[in-house]
Amino acid sequence: MRIVTSVFLATALIFSPLADAKKSKKNKVQFLSGVVEKCHDGDTCRVKVGGKIAKIRFAGIDCPELSQKHGKQARNFTESAIKGKTVNLECDGKSFDRLTCTVFLEDKNVNLMIVQSGWAYDSTKYSKGRYLASVDFAKSRRAGIWADTDLMSPYCYRHKTNKKCSLDRSYMP
User: Fold this and answer.
1) What does the alpha-carbon distance between residue 126 and residue 142 come to, in Å, rounded to a whole number?
2) Residue 56's beta-bridge partner residues?
3) Of 18, 68, 85, 117, which residue has the fewest beta carbons closer than 10 angstroms?
4) Predicted confidence band of residue 97 (pLDDT cuts 50, 70, 90)
5) pLDDT tens-digit profile of 131-143?
6) Residue of 74, 90, 94, 84 whose CA lies nearest to 145
7) DSSP letter at 151?
């Protein structure tokens, strides 16, 4: 009887929809389209998709926090570029209550545009370094936040007690 019960439980776990959902959720990319209603900060906006509002977190980049130096300028840049416009979203995950997406305006990658214009860091932990060359490009031009010589990364701003941040205020994981 124990063997039958064990085999049944093992089979149930292997074929359960929950087990499949956890596996596919990681690799599932969702394509959406909608109109940008407003931006909370430089890397988070609300997009009206099919009559509902979706909170979108720009994947792989990190802008200064709204309460941080340059935060309002980063938000204003993003909002002026896409507010009221139809964007295409390539979403591959969630961060808190937001979808993490690469945002496209026509054929332009908005995430990349924000970094190239100097308003965001490459969040290498999530982007795998996709935007590092664009950060270097913006730094070389002293664009956006990179015109400032006394910067603190958004990560260190949020994690002030992190040991790595105490050694290097520009640290980004």
Assistant:
1) 25
2) 45, 99
3) 18
4) confident
5) 999 999 999 999 9
6) 74
7) -
Tokens (6 digits) for 14? 């292997």
Q: What is the pLDDT of residue 124?
A: 92
Which strand (E) or helix (H) includes residue 142?
A: none
How does pLDDT run across 26-57, given as a tens digit for each residue? 568 999 999 999 999 999 999 999 999 999 99
Partners of 91 in the β-ladder: 30, 101
Give me 147's structure tokens. 């015109």
Tokens of 159: 């994690």
Backbone angles phi, psi at 42, to 5 degrees: -70, -20
Query: Which residues are within 8 A (CB) of 165 and not within 5 positions of it... i.e. 6 or more apart?
Result: 153, 155, 156, 159, 171
* pTM for the model: 0.82
Helices (H), the chain: 2-15, 17-27, 71-82, 110-116, 124-127, 132-141, 154-158, 163-167
The three-point CA angle 145-147-153 to 5° equals 35
**Beta bridge partners of residue 39, listed in sequence order:** 45
Q: pLDDT band at 23, cuts 50/70/90? A: very low
Instruction: Count the neighbouring beta carbons within 10 Å of the beta carbon of residue 168.
Output: 11
Average pLDDT value over all residues in the chain: 87
